[in-house]
Design brief:
The protein has 544 residues and is an alpha+beta fold. It has 18 helices and 11 strands. A hairpin with a 2-residue loop joins strand 7 and strand 8. It is globular and about 75 Å long.
Amino acid sequence: MNNARIQSQPKSTTNIFQDKNFYIVNFVTLMGILGGTLFNPALPTIQQFFQVTTDQVSWTATIFQLPGAIITPIFGILADVLGRKQVLIPSLLVFALGAGLSGWTSNFTAHLGGRLLQGVGAASLEPLQLTVIGDLYRGRTLGTAMALNAGLIGMSGALFPLIGGVLGGFGWRYTFLPGLLAIPVAFLVLVTLRLPRRPQNAEKFELKSYLQSTWSSINNRHVLGLLFAVMSLFLLQTLCLTFIPFLAVNKFRTSEAINGILLTSMSIALAVFAAQLGRLTQNLSEIKLIKLSFILFAIALLILPIIPNFWLLFIPLLLLGAAQGIALPSSQALLAGLSVQESRAGFMAVNTSIMSWGQTLGPFLGSIAVRFWGIQSVFYTSAIFSLISFAVFNYFLTTKVFDFTAKTIHLQVPPVRNEQSISSSPFPASPAIVQKPIAQLLHLETDRVIELPEDFQVINIGKSSDRIKPEVDLSDFPNCGVISRVHAQIRYDGNEYYIQDLNSSNGTFINKYPLIPGVWYKLKSGLHISFGRRNAIAFMFQLD
């Protein structure tokens, strides 16, 4: 989030394994994950204890996710206005209070009330953990911290269902009481966590401009399509975590520990395929991987209800883990490119809310299917939903004709005149005359410089042919075979430069993050722009 700072953090250049702040942030991460995963293997036992139906007990999962779907953006605003710790500490205490209430009570309504309270506390934990890491670290240290935090999320997602199964064997209450650990974590945040100071002359927060900036970053059919895919993926993931234990108990009379092993196997498959994402993206784009994941979801969900043997359950679970492992990192990679925009705070809050909506709707819609058609219908209807999601996502992100291509390129200064006009330009006689910076693309392999015109609206980047002559012609650069005829466009509005991919065959990347076709990304000096995967043709954008 865009919290201004007046002093650098010395910890950003130190070994993060020697930094107490890093461990505290990871403790916060673990709190949010255990609140949403530890109890799943014990859901059938919780149902028996409270003497409620399957659709009613599914509210244990639904009502925990509901606050995050509604109030996460509010916490994002409060964290920007009041400060990170001022939001994080009360959130952890509320989380612990809700965990204690939901675990100790013998009344189902009170149990759900505790889960709702715990969900309110958890709503700010995920976005704030990432924000605090961004506050603390810079450069390569930031990338290392993010990667280690993501690895912790993957490991805990695999281990917590197994731990929850073991704890559930002693009693279902033990799957909620670990949430009380949020109290000592809150104490560590208060006493030990050190964050950069906020400037005394910080600009007054304006809600209207904050909301306008957020809306402008998502008001695009391709971004909306991606956010829909994120919601669908988390809906399917949470639905599987909630109802697979019920299916296993009904068909194979499994215990809490066995349910934990089943869910853990799915999480392990997720981690394995996510770790191979770099290799997969060498041949398939992130958008194609998301499409593939919806197909894998549909196949696995259709197979699950008809499995005749317990050991065969691991086949669809492997497919479900693979689907999540390739889709979730791919979607977040696409969103990460968007989050470098100036509206990052609002955009990430929206992204987190969309995730929470998916996590909320999964158990809720599954409970409706169970009530009217039985447990098997949950998986059949989810398979249909997965195919519908594939169709919607395919429509929004692979449309062949984009509206922006209707803009005619207007160049007030032809490209061929650019070098001459610069070289012959006399030194300004008066210091009051400020020359415009010259935008350049520096080819990192050959050190060749492509200077953009001083004044233009839109220029094309591509590879020339008999019919197409792009303003920036990459035909004579090494590896030019990855370049499409019209690969990308750069726009200049008089103040800022923007780039967008034109649904190219091999993609456009900023700092190795893939661009969503049809979305304008703001360029800043020092950013790396590459065309094709594995930095086939890589440039640095700079203002001279």
